[in-house]
Structures are given as structure tokens and as C-alpha cells.
């Protein structure tokens, strides 16, 4: 489970964080610094159940224990895009994971790969 940090050079964001297979194992500190989140893309088309993307403002969260800063649901068998017009500031780090449980409790990975893209500056 590796992610790519791509310089976008657009007016919307500085970087695109692209991960092709997100599970309950967190992608830690993907910017290497603080940042502002402007967009979230979740591709859950390979799963027959809802998936939840959890995001943390910590460098190394413990999935199922560390309180997420944000949670984005993605229904079964669809892709979903969320935009954050004003952006959400992450003062320490940006870390994320996908799970099958809503809220902070639970750390079960989706059955199949979930693709995630974050637009960040």
C-alpha cells in the first residue's frame, strides 16, 4: 500500500496524493508536513459494502483508537468526490485509512481495493 505525491500545479491544490489500494492500515503523514485538504475522491466500485475514509491530523494514527478529524462515506459499488471550498487545515500531518465501520471504532479493511485521491496544498 503505497501512495504517490504528485505536484499538480493547479489553482485548486498544490499536490495530489494518489493511492490505488487503501486499507485499514494507515497511509501516514503523506505530505511530510502540515497542509490544507481541498478535495477527496474515493473509488469504492470494487466493494459491495459502504467504505469509510478516515483522515487524521496526526503523523501516525492508530486505526480504531485515534479519533479521526474527518470521515467520508462512500456507498457500495460507486466512486464519490467531495470538495471542501474553504479547505480543511491539518496543522501537523495528513494521514488516512479506509474501513468498513462508521465512526472511530473498528479497523476492518474493505474486502477489495479502495482507490483514494486527496487534493492538498
Characterize this entry briefly.
The protein has 121 residues and is mostly beta strands. It is 0% helix and 47% strand.
Description of the molecule:
This protein is mainly β. The chain has a single domain, classed as Jelly Rolls. Helices cover 0% and strands 47% of the residues. The chain contains no helices and 8 strands. The protein has strands at residues 3-7, 15-22, 35-43, 51-56, 70-74, 79-90, 95-99, 114-120. The chain has a 5-stranded antiparallel β-sheet, with no helix packed on it. A hairpin with a 7-residue loop joins β1 and β2 (15-22). It is globular. The model has no long low-confidence stretch (mean pLDDT 92).
Contiguous uncertain segments of 5+ residues: none
The averaged pLDDT comes out at 92
Strand order across the largest sheet: 1-2-8-3-6
CATH architecture term? Sandwich
Q: How many distinct domains?
A: 1
Gross morphology: globular
- As a percent range, the share of strand residues is over 45%
Write the CATH fold name: Jelly Rolls
- Please give the number of β-strands: 8
First-last Cα distance: 22 Å
Helix share, percent: under 10%
Q: What is the N-to-C succession of helices and strands?
A: EEEEEEEE
Keywords for this entry:
mainly beta; Jelly Rolls; globular
Amino acid at each position: 500500500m503505497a501512495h504517490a505525491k504528485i505536484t499538480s500545479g493547479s489553482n485548486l491544490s498544490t499536490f495530489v496524493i494518489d493511492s490505488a489500494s487503501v486499507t485499514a492500515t494507515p497511509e501516514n503523514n503523506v505530505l511530510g508536513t502540515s497542509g490544507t485538504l481541498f478535495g477527496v475522491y474515493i473509488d469504492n466500485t470494487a466493494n459491495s459494502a459502504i467504505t469509510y475514509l478516515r483522515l487524521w491530523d496526526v503523523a501516525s494514527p492508530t486505526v480504531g483508537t485515534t479519533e479521526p478529524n474527518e470521515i467520508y462515506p462512500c456507498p457500495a459499488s460507486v466512486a464519490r468526490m467531495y470538495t471542501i471550498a474553504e479547505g480543511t487545515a491539518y496543522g501537523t500531518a495528513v494521514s488516512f485509512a479506509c474501513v468498513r465501520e462508521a465512526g472511530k471504532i473498528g479497523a476492518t479493511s474493505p474486502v477489495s481495493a479502495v482507490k483514494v485521491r486527496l487534493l492538498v496544498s
